[in-house]
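Q: Joint fold for the lines below.
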Amino acid sequence: MRAEFINPFLASLINVLNTMASMPMTPQKPRLKKDEIARGDVSGLIGMIGPKTKGSMSITFEQDLALEIMQRMLGERPAGINEDVTDMVGEITNMVTGGAKRALAENGYDFDMATPAVVSGKGHTITHKCDNAIILMPFDSDYGKAYIEICFD
Amino acid sequence: MRAEFINPFLASLINVLNTMASMPMTPQKPRLKKDEIARGDVSGLIGMIGPKTKGSMSITFEQDLALEIMQRMLGERPAGINEDVTDMVGEITNMVTGGAKRALAENGYDFDMATPAVVSGKGHTITHKCDNAIILMPFDSDYGKAYIEICFD
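A: Joint structure:
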């Protein structure tokens, strides 16, 4: 996968969480996902299709981080992952992908976004099935970890 | 969501599992997903984009059913959900969506498919985030349950 596909997603997540939730996220070095497994408790997933490529992206959050973002964005903190949290994760997924889409379009890479789906379940993992390498971008925060994974054919 | 979007997915899942794994699946009545929650252990998810619509689909399997399909399709039965199983679920997701895509194209509904992603995690749930109702299609088998969920804007 082209390296210039990576930074727009990384920058978009940092920007969205800073702007919407005043939540600073520290990116670790993006890497190829091989044996490494990103586990989390709630994830947004979205499909992308362009004239020359197609792929999928996920954003996975640990529960404490998702609940803290909820508190900061909406001023409420449910006891666990409920429909309000999955709605928020779906929105974040749309916003992060939309931000990356705009940045990539400026560089001549166009794609359309499908609608997102949100997975909830303690310690689940996601495997993107495409013909290229999966890129894993880990993020740290004071409240837990988040991961973006992307894969494009 | 238009009712004619439902049957192509339902028929395609039954056809794919019958053909590829000699696994008969008994469909229950499709319904709107409201409070009902489809829980499973491994799911394939895919995004779809057409000129007039976009959406997402998931197929969720209970673990025992996924492992039995694995045994029947590939002659091996891992102890749990491993990469071979997620590869198979990704392939089934592609085949079921491809079958539905062909049937829908004949009726004038065109869409392109993104690449699939596979979720694994005991008892996870999936929530499709689109502007329309989510349709839930439950299936029974001798080895466990499967569910299709679809949502189109």
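Q: Anything notable?
A: Chain A has a mean pLDDT of 94. Helices of chain A lie at 6-21, 63-74, 83-106.
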